[in-house]
Amino acid sequence: MLYRKYGKTNEMVSVLGFGCMRLPVIDGNARNIDDDKAIAMLRYGIDNGINYVDTAYPYHGDGMGGPGESEPFVARALKDGYRDKVNIATKLPSWLIRTREDMDRYLNEQLERLETDRIDFYLVHALNAGTWKTVKELGIFEFLDSAVKDGRIRYPGFSFHDELPVFKEIVDAYDWTFCQVQYNYLDEYFQAGIEGLEYAAAKGIGIAVMEPLRGGKLVRDIPESVQAAFDKTDIKRTPADWALRWVWNNPDVAVTLSGMSTMEQVEENLKIANEAHPGSLSKQELDIVEEARTAFRQTRVSCTGCAYCMPCPAGVNIPGNFTYVNEYYFLDNDKQKQALKETYASRIPEVGRASKCVECGTCEEHCPQNLLIIEELKHVVEVFA
Q1: Is the dihedral of CA 289, 220, 253, 299 positive or negative?
Q2: What is the pTM of this model?
Q3: Could you confirm whether the keyword Metal-binding appears in this record (predicted)?
Q4: CA-to-CA distance for 15 and 134, rounded, in angstroms?
Q5: Where a domain ends, among 251, 267, 297?
Q6: Are residues 238 and 329 in the same domain?
Q7: CB 3.0–4.6 Å: which of 18, 27, 229, 323 could bond 291 by disulfide?
């Protein structure tokens, strides 16, 4: 395992962090984590050098932002001495904060859920212009200072989903030690982007990267045009290998979080993490990734499949609909497109189709990508009518 200094903290963190958002589950129920498989995966990762475990209050929940099952899972997985081998990162649910007292209440609840007396890296979760305004007015800085002073957290940070000017404002407002941003070869200029990443790093703020594989979109069922770009070279790598190496090529990135769902993914990512030194990609390799990026940008909807928009009050399977419409735009001829329409009709039950959207807007309030979901669902209806 390779390690990098985590900004001004001077902590050495594994370049691969274990994200506990997409763990294996039983019967498709996000709240029913398959402990046997998931614990084996996490401990295997730790045994092979991972020392950064990332979770959050709502992970493996009902999609409505309340308490999920990821934090209690982490507590179970880190028994038998594993807690002392890793740094735990979790997050204050900013959207639930109504008073200054709420901040302490949620942190104390998380300490209990994680069965620990300290959280190593504590983030204010999913900051955007709205939640930033709220927590700032309610005293987030005093809360973080007090939690560091009394030992409940070691390092304060934030995760981010908004535009670059908001990111810079947040960076400049407090003595943050680290931050978490979305960054991959498709999203180099999305949200904080490369400019924000470099802006924070220049101030000594450690950089954690989320969505390096864009929720699996960069590795699963990729378009033939993207695979063709990778196949042009004698360098044989999987799509995950290309995507992760591209992120790790940036020396400002300290830890990259991967939400691994199978042991095979853990093994593959560990292998890559042992080899991905900063600045190690050649110009030829960077050009290949650029070609893959160009092919990928034919995608209609930039959905990562995080399911923050779910459950839909009207029953629409939002990520599922977007998966099909994106696949539609990758197809080359009318025959393939017609076959996909038939597949859509057979696999997406009528109750879950885009046509059932009532335009309530609940999904858009929760989408970290700020997608215009209602309008995109209307387009799905046009495509698959």
Answers
A1: positive
A2: 0.82
A3: yes
A4: 33
A5: 297
A6: no
A7: 229
